[in-house]
Design a protein that fits this description.
Strand content: 15-25%
Shape: globular
Number of strands: 13
Structural class: alpha/beta
Length: 310
Amino acid sequence: MTDNKIIIGTRGSQLALYQAHKVQDILNEAFPNFSTEVIIIKTKGDKILDVALSKIGDKGLFTKELEVELLNGGIDLAVHSLKDLPTQLPSEFKVAAVLERANFRDAFVSKNGLKISELTAEHTVATSSLRRIANLRRVNKEVKIVDIRGNVNTRLQKMEGGLCDGMIMATAGLQRLELDQHITEILDPTEFIPAVAQGAIAIETASSNTQVNDLLKQINHAKTEIEVDAERAFMRTLEGGCQVPVGAYSSVKGDQITLTGFVASLDGKSYLKESATASIENSKELGENLANKLVDLGATTILNQIRENL
């Protein structure tokens, strides 16, 4: 950071830009003596749109190029959907702050207003998420599933063009882009467990950038940090990611946090789900312990079988 100017790096999708400008607005209000600028950087995940995420890997798929710029000093911070950020970061980087979380639930979007429970073998649902596929197979075994990639508006256009009858998407993304009118139903997280850290915006920095990191501490949302720390610890312990059907969500009440997590086979037939509660000071340990409980119940066998078949 030079001349009191903070450079913000982001992907170029409409949703990514919304998130980057939201961070920019918060920084401008909190630190009026600093100027800010948003720079767009294309990532591997933005360039490869014709291959399923599970086929190209998820280690830094939407983050690596931004991290290179963090190390080179081209940007001071990178803004991400936290669910896209690997749960194990190299020591050179850190999540310096998270914003207050939006709705973490998944949403179903359909052309004809049908809900998931009303779909038949004649209908097709599009999603690129193995987690969503496993959840969908568990609640509706009949529906056909096709892969879909691209930003939110591109996906909506593909649906209207006949690719599918409906899609499962993040509620937060649709709401942030003021596309709520497309939501047919917001899915019950107890039945359709969302992605780890879904709905949370993360600010990543170089660990060595102490000036920026000290500033970002002041805009961090503590409750959201506690929740996502538990969820990310759960996934990290399971070594999960886009390539495996793993999900979790948490809630903080007073000084307690409750975490629910699941692991499933792609057909939804093998399905492990558990919940646990701990003090907020032990949120990471809660995630680790819940993951280990699922391991004891057979999660590792399920995940290994999925990885072998991808």
